[in-house]
Amino acid sequence: MKNKNIQIKKISDGKKINGRIIECKSHKFEVDKxxxxxISDIFFKDGLIIFENFRINPENFFLLTKKFTxxxxxxxxxxxxxxxxxxxxxxxxxxxxxxxxSESSFTLTRPKIIWFMCIKPPKKIxxxxxxxxDGQQLWQNLKIDKKIFxxxxxxxxxxxxxxxxxxxxxxxxxxxxxxxxxxxxxxxSKNNISFKKKIFAVERDFFSNExxxxxxxxxxxxxxxxxxxxxxxxxxxxxxxxxxxVKTSKKLIYSHKWxxxxxxxxxxxxxxxxxxxxxxxxxxxxxxxxxxxxxxNF
Length: 298
Known about the structure:
The chain is an alpha+beta fold. It contains five helices and 20 strands. It has helices at 36-46, 58-67, 135-141, 144-152, 239-250; strands at residues 6-10, 20-24, 48-52, 69-72, 81-82, 85-90, 98-101, 113-120, 130-134, 155-162, 171-173, 181-187, 192-199, 202-204, 211-213, 226-231, 254-256, 263-267, 271-275, 285-294. A hairpin with a 4-residue loop joins strand 12 and strand 13. The two termini are 18 Å apart.
């Protein structure tokens, strides 16, 4: 679809992050009416799209996500359902910094695509920018000794996930149908399922097939569902490796300052995201949706 009111441009932040802005110059075009192939071609190549200046509300935000979604992921219980739609949730509450991570990368419900929409942006002095790092660029910039370590050694996430309250007072072995999952136990008394998940920190991207470093390794302390992470018979991951990844990622981070009604579409298998600290109580409102199984019709 050719539309003279639609402009496509690079994200310009001085760090050459892969990603594109699709902008409506007239503010009259509804975002969910955009050509699906246009979006797909950009997304497969760049993995990050910002939609700007379109006519949009939570309803056609959902319709946009639905164009690319065969099934939605189950989001965390802690996030509030918004607009009476269980596939739209609030983002995490609180003012703390949220470290870079790939959403739910240690679980069975890791979404392929995550979507954000800004209902009300924070004031510039409030902070709280969404931070994004391209795991493909991060992997390319890691030193060779780190690459050798992470492509050789799968990591093991020791996980406890909350479940709804059952009126049962026991625990038993459980079975979760996914590769790398083991030692599953469901504990009704404590309302959780515990398991271990073995997964490489570097993987091939679902869309581009390039090697990417997008995982939860940098945000273990932020995630209360992760008990600990280790490798090879409970060996601790060298701290100098973590420090080098943090240092390298800081050079690549894109810090996004939200505008009202902006939408971001992110390849969750390639990009990690987080949030800068909110300096003071902000009345910002950002919603998200998560595509578990994508639908690109090809």
